[in-house]
Amino acid sequence: MEATVSITLNPCNANLIKARTMATPPPTTPNPLRKPLIRVLLITILCSLFYFVGFYNSFNSTSKPLLQDPYCLQLKNITTLQNPRQPLHFEPQHTLSLPPDSPQSHQFFKYCPKNFTNYCPCQDPNRETRFPTGSLFHRERHCPGTAEALRCLVPTPVGYRRPFSWPKSRYYAWFNNVPFPRLTVSKKNQNWVRLEADRLFFPGGGTSFPTGVKGYIDLLKQLVPLKSGNIRTVLDFGCGVASFGASLIDYNILTMSLAPRDIHEAQVQFALERGLPAMLGVLSTYRLPYPSRSFDMAHCSRCLVQWIGYGGLYLMEIDRILRPGGYWVLSGPPINWRVNYKGWQRTQDDLKKEQNSLEDLARRLCWKKITERGPIAVWRKPTNHIHCIQKLKAWKSPNFCAEADPDAGWYMKMNACVTPLPHVADIHDIAGGALEKWPERLNTCSA
Ligand SMILES: *[C@@H]1O[C@H](CO)[C@@H](O)[C@H](O)[C@H]1NC(C)=O
Ligand SMILES: *[C@@H]1O[C@H](CO)[C@@H](O)[C@H](O)[C@H]1NC(C)=O
């Protein structure tokens, strides 16, 4: 039982779950059963059918067994399938074949050795060393092949306890559940997380918000309409212990926090322990595992991504996953370099150049800079590409992506091109259809 709990805390499982959901994308065509008129009609037809079937059967109740009715025959087939002696027809339902029936398959799996408590098969620091470190390729997902795959259960940490329930888990986690003291020491003056006896306390600090995430969000809400309902989904890069995402919950905003496993332990494990959505991930060579136009806002606060490197590849990936009209929020270098250059130990000239390149790149993506105040700069993706098509034609670079499916995100290499938005007829139209505000969005779908 406890082992199952520890698996849900393991950050790599978020990837696995995503993998499964990505494998079977939900159908995009609107369900005709949603229309109330059709639903009422269908129910009426079914009710009459059952009435007549019942009527017919009561007439023939003695002469004809119920199971000869075609509807009941179907039931009979289900009953025969439930008979354990009949093998279940697996192949028609699944595209993958069953693993060979090994003699041990009916026994319980063994536990892995104790040092595997935080083992993530696809993000294993021991295997990482086999891959080139250029553009952080070693930090991408590298899953073991079948020969290397382990068949054991990840053991719970010693002294594991049931996590605090929400909302207490927002501030507290048992130290024994995520026994990583290094972060509490190395980030001590940044106030990310403190060790208080047997529990970790998350005061809401961060590298870019040493005075607390609350002050940071108080500023952000003056720049971006956090309360409007237009922003519901956010992707946070280099999330630390996900205090940013934790605070946005107050605004009815859901944040997916993303970070690679770095020299500190997997920080997303702290986030998951707190009950916050998080995933191991890095911008390196593959696209982010999301379809295009998924997020209302993307955020990076000193996330150490080389936004202007590789021909702007990574900012183009942000552009892909942002919805039309979505926000890009950046704090940390080079933003506000005039105030901070000494603390960052970089020259003013260097930072100024970086900021100019960044502004230029954003312009080439047809983004509009909304504002820059204090540590925060905000850009906005256009709501359609009517103007952008003309601009990109004139500039020659970057180009719109020609072939690749904009929604393919799973092990898909990134290309330095702009993902085209769906075509619109009018400059005021929103590409792909306007979205309702949250929470109305939940029960409507765009045309
Ligand atoms: C029930 O199963 C039999 C044999 O598999 C099949 O021929 C028959 O069509 C099935 N009946 C229904 C109603 O699905
Ligand atoms: C656990 O320890 C063994 C033996 O020292 C080592 O081979 C293995 O790589 C370790 N596993 C992890 C996940 O650290």
UniProtKB/TrEMBL annotation:
Localisation: Endomembrane system; Membrane
Keyword Glycosyltransferase: no
Any single Gene Ontology cellular-component annotation: membrane
Topology of this chain in the membrane: Single-pass type II membrane protein
Enzyme Commission number(s) from the entry: 2.1.1.-
Enzyme class: transferase
Record InterPro entries: Put_SAM_MeTrfase, SAM-dependent_MTases_sf
Transmembrane segments: 37-56
Keyword annotations of the record: Glycoprotein, Membrane, Methyltransferase, Signal-anchor, Transferase, Transmembrane, Transmembrane helix
GO BP terms, alphabetized: methylation
Signal peptide positions (record): none
Record keyword Transmembrane helix present: yes
GO molecular function: methyltransferase activity
Protein family (similarity comment): Belongs to the methyltransferase superfamily.
Cited PANTHER family: METHYLTRANSFERASE PMT19-RELATED (PTHR10108:SF968), SAM-DEPENDENT METHYLTRANSFERASE (PTHR10108)
Protein name per UniProt: Methyltransferase
Organism: Nyssa sinensis
